[in-house]
Automatic annotation (TrEMBL):
<protein>
    <recommendedName>
        <fullName>YbbR-like domain-containing protein</fullName>
    </recommendedName>
</protein>
<dbReference type="InterPro" id="IPR012505">
    <property type="entry name" value="YbbR"/>
</dbReference>
<dbReference type="Pfam" id="PF07949">
    <property type="entry name" value="YbbR"/>
</dbReference>
<dbReference type="InterPro" id="IPR053154">
    <property type="entry name" value="c-di-AMP_regulator"/>
</dbReference>
Length: 286
């Protein structure tokens, strides 16, 4: 028995993409994006093959050129990893590429993005990162500068810091890129850190009576509560149940049964979030 799988043949129109190899001769740069004629091609293949095509690419070698370039270049279909996909018919498979050169280099104003590595000490977090200046003008080869959206600094290590760190670092520039005239060569980066504020639940805290007449006794139901608190990590981490007092105060020592709100006495720097249950029943025994 012979099984034959039949798959639809589809046609898809896509823009022609490109990759640049090398850079022009020193003193020259691309004046604009490469232009293609035609700017779109058709891909014809089985549906499963077309689905694996990420883009079409023309590899353009501009190494050492010093004048405008007009050349016919073969188009290939590639996958997400840049590998050529066979079995795709491209119409046309050769396009005319035009590249215009200009003397000098294009400029671009880019926001600064500090590159942070490492983490602050446990219990701390980065609250803000400031750069001065926060923008820098650079110039260089069109092939390098055209796709840049921001300018990273060299790595700044914040591992284990517990307070604000200020450093002056240079931008990380690829070969062929330069700082614009009048721009600073060092960027002052300030990394502000804060202690993390965390919560903690302390369970089964005994509730004790306060301001109760010495001539009476009482029974509290339930006898224990759960208390949720908040504070800086360094304080919360050391907090224990015995550091907290849960209590009830009486305004009427003669009422046999009464609902009373539970209050809590906490160490300095610790905030109360909630008590569960909020109220307990107090039975007065005369």
């Amino acid at each position: 028995e012979i099984k034959v799988e039949v798959e639809r043949i589809l046609t898809k129109e896509v823009e022609v993409g490109y990759s640049l190899i090398g850079i022009p001769e020193k003193g020259f740069s691309l004046a604009d994006e490469p232009q293609f004629n035609p700017s779109k091609v058709k891909l014809i293949s089985a549906q499963s093959v077309l689905e694996s095509v990420k883009q079409t690419i023309c590899a353009i070698d501009i190494s050492g050129i010093r004048e405008d370039l007009n050349r016919k270049i073969k188009v290939k279909a590639v996958d997400v990893n840049g590998n050529e996909i066979r079995g795709v018919k491209i119409e046309p498979d050769i396009v005319e590429v035009s590249i215009s050169l200009a003397r000098g280099y294009p400029e671009k104003q880019l926001p600064v993005k500090p590159r942070i590595i490492g983490k602050p000490a446990p219990g701390y977090y980065i609250s803000e990162i400031l750069s001065n200046p926060d923008e820098i003008k650079i110039f260089g080869n069109y092939s390098k500068i055209s796709n840049l959206e921001f300018l990273e600094t060299i790595p700044i290590d914040v591992n284990g810091i517990t307070k604000t760190l200020s450093v002056k670092v240079p931008p990380a520039l690829e070969e062929g890129l330069n700082i614009g005239e009048g721009e600073t060569m060092l960027i002052e980066v300030t990394i502000q850190v804060k202690e993390a504020i965390i919560q903690k639940i302390l369970k089964d805290i005994s509730v004790v009576p306060q301001d109760l007449s010495p001539f009476v006794s009482c029974e509290i139901q339930p006898e224990v509560v759960n208390i949720t608190v908040e504070g800086k990590n360094i304080l919360i981490d050391k907090l224990k149940a015995e550091d907290i007092t849960a209590f009830v105060k009486f305004t009427d020592n003669f009422k046999v049964e009464q609902k009373v709100k539970v209050q809590a006495e906490l160490p300095e720097g610790i905030s109360l979030i909630k008590v569960e249950p909020e109220e307990v029943t107090v039975l007065i025994n005369k």
